[in-house]
Amino acid sequence: MKIDIKYSGNIINLPASVADFVERATKNDLAVIISLAKNMAYASSFENYIADFAKNLGMSVDEVKKSLVFWSECAVISVDSFDSLVTDMVTDNPTLSNALPSYTGEQIAKFVERNKDMASLFYNCQSIMGKVFNAHDHNNVIYLKNFYKFDDEFILLLLAHCVEVGKPNWAYVRKTAANLYDQGIDTYDKLEAHFADRKNKRSLEYKIRKLFSIGEREFSKSEKEVIGKWISADISIKLLEKAYDITVDKTSKASVKYAAKIIDNWLSVGITTPEQADEAEKKYKEKQSASTFKTDDFFEAALKRSYGTKKNDTEGKK
């Protein structure tokens, strides 16, 4: 198979090194480097043309800047105001991009010198995660700040949570950040309330495990469904303990499925506390007792009537 490139009189010159970074480059990165090579006449004062350049590519100015940083780091181009360009990107919250930044340690050190707030954020993040950050660590913090526009307090609380649950790695941090963002949890107050709610739910789950002697094994599918309902309905552990006691008394085993039927019956009639359950049980026993008493009276009266009739018949025959 033979292939000819149709130059048609127009040729774009690109450094051969561009081919070395094609796999890492995004669609935007490739569009920027090709268009830049085609319009090198504007390169000497590019800041005057960057808005039109971005518009022609259907990109934002910040997206173009990000691609310029990428090709500069690959040593494909050079930018005389590179430090300022990188600093602007970190501090001005550019358009969202799901690509992890790739600033070098030297570049990060330069713009940290110019931005005390970023320096403070990096320091506090290091303290929470218990290690000295390298360029990869710093890039992840920048990602959280720029991509999601989380404030510093939010980021610190997020990292503290990940450390607390034993998963202080960036993959988990980014996954958690994405889930929170999708749920609309994007402020410190929302995050604090979310973690408090999760903590309460985990506490109830632990108590349920202990109560029903489930241990550390995985919940079965039916158990997950039942326990999820209990947690969602905010069932108190005291009410669950009462349902557990009744379950064991009736079945001689700790059955979540049986306890669920008891809880469902209680909830269907508005019983949500152990006190209400005790009162309902008391009334039920009284009703049963009264019913038994009336039945006994009935049979006793019937026997008397029967006995009396037979006695009268006997006396009449005499």
Layout of strands and helices, then pairs:
Blueprint: H1 27-38, H2 50-57, H3 61-73, H4 82-91, H5 105-114, H6 116-129, H7 135-147, H8 152-164, H9 170-182, H10 188-211, H11 221-232, H12 237-251, H13 256-268, H14 274-317
Helix pairs in contact: 1-3, 3-4, 4-5, 6-8, 8-10, 10-12, 12-13
Count of spatially separate domains: 4
In N-to-C order, the SSE pattern is HHHHHHHHHHHHHH
Q: List the total number of helices.
A: 14
Radius of gyration: 37 Å
Distance between the termini: 131 Å
Tell me the overall shape. elongated
Low-pLDDT stretches = 91-97
Query: What percentage of residues falls in helices of 4 or more residues?
Result: 55-70%
Which secondary-structure class do the elements indicate?
mainly alpha
Describe it for me?
The chain is mainly alpha-helical. 67% of the residues lie in helices and 0% in strands. It has 14 helices and no strands. The termini are far apart. 19% of the residues are buried.
Q: What is this entry, summarized?
A:
With 318 residues, this protein is mostly helical. It has 14 helices and no strands. The chain has four domains: 9-98, no CATH class; 112-186, Arc Repressor Mutant, subunit A; 196-272; 274-318.
Key attributes of the depicted protein:
Arc Repressor Mutant, subunit A; 67% helix; 318 residues; mainly alpha
